[in-house]
Design brief:
By secondary structure, the protein is of the alpha/beta class. The protein has 2 domains: about 10-40 and about 290-365 and about 410-445, Alpha-Beta Complex (Aspartate Aminotransferase, domain 1); about 45-285, 3-Layer(aba) Sandwich (Aspartate Aminotransferase, domain 2), CATH 3.40.640. It has 16 helices and 12 strands. It has helices at about 10-20, 45-55, 65-75, 90-100, 140-145, 170-180, 230-240, 245, 255, 275-305, 345-355, 375, 385-390, 405-410, 425-440, 440-445; strands spanning about 80-85, 105-110, 125-130, 155-160, 180-185, 195, 195-200, 205-210, 220-225, 315, 335, 415. It has a 7-stranded mixed β-sheet, with helices on both faces. A 3-stranded antiparallel β-sheet has the order 10-11-12, with no helix packed on it. Strands 6-7 form a two-stranded antiparallel sheet. The chain is globular, with a radius of gyration of 23 Å.
Length: about 450
């Protein structure tokens, strides 16, 4: 473990912030980084034993451990069903099929997200239609959803972006009013709460990644959760052929996936979505300690932002205190940036100066998908025209200016350190790096 960064008094903190900026030759606010403060996942001997046991048994492709993991995750999530997948992309694709997304349908989703929140809709013959985001939560804006619903809209994908719960109350009201299903993408928000309720158990179905760098990290894995038996069975039928005879009960599905005389079903999607049981084994051991670990992360991240509460130009990206909403494992934490309070200093220059102080910053948010050529120009399936146009009955492409908040948020957001332990003295040092740059922003703008 690296030695802690000692900041023992407010006077010392003031002295750090009063010094010249490191990027201009002054001393660094964080003289020595603490990599172990950010290392993830935490892998124990118990994790190793569980994974090695699967390897020695040669049961990587079996289901016994996976079924236990699914059962424990469903309890944690608070849903009736959980279905493990090989990755989060597959889980979300199965969720789309589960709610009936198909040829000619439209799926509304945010543009500011990882591509797997919506792009795979095209694999089902459907097309994504993007809605703008709320500038405070950075999640899909309920006020922009309803005007994008058409007779072809089948589902709304809600991403709890960078750990912040989306405003699910009005979103569910809109969806229910129009008979549209809601798919939650919980890849950033394992364990997050929306008004006291678990994200991932609020919509009709949820999907999430559990890949190596997520807050619940067990390898290349994913999970689908739902209370709806038909959605669950459709997901099984789509990509879990080996489970068909045992788990499919709906008459409309049984003849196809569990026909008499065949030892197993055939996946309706022609896809094999099964998780590797080494990941399931690690999932079981990680879940046993996950609530305690994310409690420490939440304490640490809230401590960091509390130290910066009165700092000009930067604001926390987190729910209001006392709202009953939390950030879960706080995956990919970001802050809001107000350049107008810092003399117009561009966020890129702010980030550069923070990193010179040892503060660990970065861009923070994704580039908006609706401007990418794949969504506007690519003819993926040789239709003779862009796929998004070919799959819809209208031109649904959205060019520059169509989603103004999503397009400008890259200039109004920045990455912050993702603490895995609550070490007050160390966290104070990293917070000092951000405060120091904010307080000296004028010097940077004058030199620009």
């Amino acid at each position: 473990m690296s030695p802690a960064i000692e900041i023992s008094s407010s006077n010392e903190l003031s002295a750090i912030c009063a010094a010249d900026l490191a990027i201009l030759g002054g001393p660094k606010a964080v003289p020595q980084d603490e990599p172990d403060l950010f290392h993830w996942p935490i892998v124990t001997a118990e994790d190793e034993r569980a994974v090695v046991e699967v390897l020695r048994e040669g049961s990587m492709s079996d289901l016994s451990v996976t079924r236990r993991f699914e059962g424990e995750w469903a309890k944690y999530q608070g849903t009736r069903y959980a279905l493990a997948h090989c990755n989060g992309t597959a889980a979300l694709l199965s969720a789309m099929f589960g709610v009936g997304v198909g040829r000619g349908d439209e799926v509304i989703c945010p543009s500011l997200t990882y591509w797997a929140s919506g792009l795979q809709a095209m694999s089902l013959g459907a097309t994504p239609v993007f809605a703008d985001i709320d500038p405070r939560t950075l999640c899909i804006d309920p006020n922009d959803i309803e005007r994008r619903i058409t007779g072809r809209t089948k589902a709304i994908v809600v991403v709890h972006y960078c750990g912040h719960p989306a405003d699910m109350g009005p979103i569910m009201a809109i969806a229910n009013r129009h008979g549209v299903k809601v798919i939650e993408d919980v890849s950033h928000a394992h364990g997050a709460l929306y008004k006291g309720r678990m994200c991932g158990a609020l919509g009709h179905v949820s999907g999430m990644s559990m890949m190596a760098k997520k807050s619940f990290a067990i390898g290349e894995a994913g999970m689908l959760c739902t209370d709806d038996r038909e959605i669950y069975e459709r997901a099984v039928a789509f990509a879990h052929y080996e489970r068909a005879k045992e788990e499919i009960t709906f008459p409309s599905l049984r003849p196809v996936v569990a026909a008499d005389g065949f030892p197993t079903g055939l996946p309706l999607g022609g896809i094999k979505g099964r998780i590797n049981q080494t990941c399931s084994a690690m999932g079981l051991t990680q879940l046993a300690t996950y609530p305690q670990r994310i409690a420490a992360i939440q304490d640490a991240m809230n401590r960091f932002w509390d130290l910066l509460e009165d700092c000009p130009g930067i604001r926390p990206h987190r729910p209001e205190k006392g709202s009953g909403s939390t950030m879960g494992g706080w995956y990919n934490p970001v802050g809001h940036y107000a350049p107008e309070e810092l003399g117009g200093l561009p966020v890129e220059k702010f980030v550069e100066a923070v990193n010179a102080e040892g503060g660990r910053s970065g861009r923070g948010v994704n580039f908006p998908m609706h401007l990418h050529p794949v969504l506007n120009e690519a003819d993926v399936y040789h239709d003779g025209r862009p796929t998004r146009v070919a799959f819809a009955d209208r031109d649904v492409r959205q060019g520059p200016g169509s989603l103004p908040v999503s397009e400008r948020v890259g200039q109004r957001a920045f990455g912050v350190p993702w603490f895995k332990y609550d070490r007050p003295e160390s966290i104070a040092g990293y917070a000092a790096a951000f405060r120091k740059v904010a307080l000296h922003a004028g010097e940077l703008t004058r030199r620009a």
